[in-house]
Design goal:
Mean pLDDT: 94
Order of helices and strands: EHEHE
Oligomer: single chain
Shape: globular
Radius of gyration: 10 Å
Number of domains: 1
């Protein structure tokens, strides 16, 4: 599971991940070039973070 999130929706993304996956996620900041083309899962703002399963 991967959720892209802006600053506003990071708490919602973390809560959703834990509720669905029943485990803690990895939270990483996107690289500058990824920020330009990636939108938040919850709105149309550019994503800053990615919440995902451990690699």
């Amino acid at each position: 599971m991967r959720i892209f999130s802006c600053e506003t929706h990071i708490n919602q993304a973390l809560d959703m991940f834990v509720a669905e996956q029943k485990t803690f996620p990895m939270l990483e900041e996107l690289k500058e070039d990824e920020k330009l083309s990636t939108k938040c899962t919850y709105c149309d703002v550019a994503a800053i973070y990615i919440v995902e399963n451990e690699k």
